[in-house]
């Protein structure tokens, strides 16, 4: 026996499955005595779960998730008859999770050629996400092609989920087309709002290097400096108080230190264009172009 067990397809009904990753790297789904050999595992090509419970615990990352899986008895707006329907709750990296959605009746875990249809409505901490589209290779995420919408209290709150530093902002909402292939993630044709400002453009993240590389081209027809404040070093709500010295110095943006905390998590090349920049108690400025470059 080579500690390798393979099943091309598994169908389970009323099953209860719990997976646990413990301190020291032990993983309950590995078959060696130390449960650390990644080659000593049960390999499953396709799996169908009906009326089942799936759990995952990782105490070191403050993660504990429980999913209830069932089969849709009839077609609905979000699923077809026979589709897998799921509800998920628990915690992910210390943040509360509530999610529901649906997918195809048979989950192709390793097939990197067959796209798997999925619909998701999830809340993770203060962030709400909806997505609808296809994922290829569920274990490896070989490819992703979904329409998604995202909203939350601040872009900064995405750091525990993405591991990429984003600026503190007022509440935001955005929607766009998320695609992934190889080491590249790209949010295309997105549009939305941050505070009182409109935003649109694309964001791309490449993860193949020693740290992620973020490239973005963001445009705004009307940008409020109050919304840009946390990004350029001011506290939210303090921009108005800074208006007088900014005008006196002749600067469009305040001469204040940038908040560089977490900048070491990412390299970045960002271009930002605003047709109109508005500031409290001052005349608006036109055609702002800002470039941001972060390296090492």
Walk me through this protein's architecture.
The protein has 296 residues and is mainly beta. The chain has three helices and 17 strands. It has a 14-stranded mixed β-sheet with strand order 2-4-5-6-7-9-10-11-12-13-14-15-16-17. Strands 1-3-8 form a three-stranded mixed β-sheet, with no helix packed on it. The longest helix has 8 residues, at 225-232. It starts with a strand and ends with a strand. The relative contact order is 0.08. Mean pLDDT is 83; it is low at 236-249.
Q: What would you say about this model in short?
A:
With 296 residues, the chain is mostly beta strands.
What's the topology here?
Elements: E1 5-13, E2 16-21, E3 42-50, E4 52-58, E5 63-71, E6 84-92, E7 95-103, E8 107-108, E9 115-124, E10 127-136, E11 143-152, H1 159-162, E12 172-181, E13 184-194, E14 197-206, E15 213-224, H2 225-232, H3 243-249, E16 267-278, E17 285-294
Parallel strand pairs: 1-3, 2-4, 15-16
Antiparallel strand pairs: 3-8, 4-5, 5-6, 6-7, 7-9, 9-10, 10-11, 11-12, 12-13, 13-14, 14-15, 16-17
Strand content: over 45%
Helix content: under 10%
Strand order of the largest sheet: 2-4-5-6-7-9-10-11-12-13-14-15-16-17
Number of helices: 3
SSE topology string: EEEEEEEEEEEHEEEEHHEE
Class of secondary structure makeup = mainly beta
Rg from Cα: 23 Å
Quaternary organization:
single chain
Net shape: elongated
Describe the largest sheet: 14 strands, mixed
Q: Count the strands?
A: 17
> Could you list the spans in which at least 5 consecutive residues all have pLDDT below 50?
236-249
For the terminal residues, how far apart are their CA atoms? 48 Å
């Amino acid at each position: 026996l080579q500690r390798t067990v393979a099943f091309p397809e598994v169908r389970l009904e009323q099953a209860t499955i719990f997976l646990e990753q413990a301190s020291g790297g032990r993983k309950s789904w590995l078959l060696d005595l130390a449960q650390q050999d990644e080659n000593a595992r049960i390999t499953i090509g396709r799996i169908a779960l009906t009326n089942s419970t799936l759990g995952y615990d990782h105490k070191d990352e403050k993660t504990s998730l429980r999913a209830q899986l069932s089969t849709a008895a009839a077609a609905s707006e979000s699923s077809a008859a026979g589709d897998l329907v799921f509800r998920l709750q628990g915690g992910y990296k210390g943040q509360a999770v509530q999610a529901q959605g649906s997918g195809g009746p048979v989950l192709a875990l390793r097939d990197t050629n067959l796209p798997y249809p999925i619909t998701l409505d999830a809340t993770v901490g203060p962030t709400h996400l909806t997505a609808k589209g296809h994922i290829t290779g569920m274990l490896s995420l070989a490819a992703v092609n979904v329409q998604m919408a995202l909203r939350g209290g601040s872009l900064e709150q995405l750091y525990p989920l993405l591991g990429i530093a984003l600026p503190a902002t007022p509440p935001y909402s955005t929607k766009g087309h998320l695609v992934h292939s190889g080491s590249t993630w790209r949010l295309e044709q997105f549009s939305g709002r941050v505070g009182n400002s409109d935003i649109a453009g694309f964001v791309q993240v490449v993860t193949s290097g020693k740290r992620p590389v973020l490239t973005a081209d963001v445009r705004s027809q009307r940008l409020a400096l109050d919304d840009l404040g946390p990004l350029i070093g001011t506290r939210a709500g303090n921009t108005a108080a800074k208006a007088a010295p900014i005008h006196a110095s002749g600067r469009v943006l305040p001469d204040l230190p940038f908040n560089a905390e977490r900048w070491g998590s990412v390299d970045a090349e960002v271009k930002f264009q605003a047709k109109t920049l508005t500031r409290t108690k001052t005349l608006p400025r036109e055609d702002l172009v800002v470039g941001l470059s972060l390296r090492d």
